[in-house]
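ok, trying the design again with the full structure, not the truncated one.
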């Protein structure tokens, strides 16, 4: 009896890992699949005691209900405005902080990074009451700039950590050579180092976008009275009333809500892994 060939033996050894990976993918994707298929099911099939993995008939009625709901366009605008503003502000501030930590030597640099790591590990839900009191006392309740600042604070520590490691991975000799050729320090960074930061910037942008786009707790807790200042996560709860929940419209609205994050991820996915890996190489 011939012994198994090395490629076959290697494949058999990896079979449990592949099976575990496939099972993980199925477990993670099944709720998404169920959400999307429920959005296309007629109401009679959704309420049926005999659920089906594949709908017998397909309908767009629930999507029409979601799109025609009060405030659909306004809440989309609010979410996009708050999310993009928070991400851009976090990138701008984190880029300067990461450069200062990675390239300069100053007293308190290690303590600063320790504070950033502590802020990254802190559960933001535990700060709801202090933030609510501060917002109330400063007259910032029921205002979109408040959410923008909160999402900026949530995404800033992660952005600083990743960009700091990414800048540290760029040889400083490249910027020094540009300075020898006549560039200022800022000009050398803009012309030489900044183009090399694209993967890191995209990785942190994706994280910040998904975090701010999906956030519900602060949006629901701080935007209490002003209907025009609510965002999409709060809008999703409008399909639930004292008479029950319109599951078809809820799933359709959730599908529409997930599309922007999916589009951003698909557009940036090739740079995300490289950005996160490069950001953790040097510290």
């Amino acid at each position: 009896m011939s012994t198994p060939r090395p490629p076959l033996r290697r494949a058999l050894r990896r079979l449990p890992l592949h099976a575990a990976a496939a099972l993980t993918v199925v477990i993670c994707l099944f709720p998404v699949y169920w959400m999307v298929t429920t959005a296309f099911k007629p109401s009679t099939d959704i309420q049926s005691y005999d659920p089906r993995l594949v709908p017998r008939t397909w309908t767009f009625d629930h999507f029409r209900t979601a799109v025609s709901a009060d405030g659909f366009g306004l809440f989309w605008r609010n979410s996009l405005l708050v999310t993009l503003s928070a991400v851009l502000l976090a990138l701008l501030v984190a880029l300067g902080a990461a450069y200062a930590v990675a390239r300069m030597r100053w007293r308190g640099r290690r303590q600063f990074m320790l504070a950033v790591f502590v802020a990254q590990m802190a559960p933001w839900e535990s700060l709801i009451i202090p933030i609510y009191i501060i917002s109330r006392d400063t007259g910032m309740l029921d205002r979109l700039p408040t959410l923008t600042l909160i999402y900026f604070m949530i995404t800033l520590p992660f952005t600083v950590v990743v960009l700091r490691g990414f800048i540290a991975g760029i040889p400083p000799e490249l910027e020094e050579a540009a300075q020898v050729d006549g560039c200022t320090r800022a000009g050398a960074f803009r012309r030489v180092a900044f183009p090399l930061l694209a993967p890191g910037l995209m990785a942190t942008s994706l994280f910040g976008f998904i975090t701010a786009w999906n956030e519900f707790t602060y949006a629901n807790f701080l935007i209490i009275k002003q209907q025009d200042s609510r965002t999409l996560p709060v809008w999703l709860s409008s399909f639930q009333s004292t008479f029950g929940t319109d599951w078809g419209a809820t799933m359709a609205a959730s599908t529409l809500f997930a599309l922007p994050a999916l589009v951003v991820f698909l557009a940036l996915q090739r740079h995300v892994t490289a950005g996160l890996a490069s950001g953790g190489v040097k510290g």
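Keeping the full-length input from now on. The CA atoms of residues 175 and 183 lie 9 Å apart.
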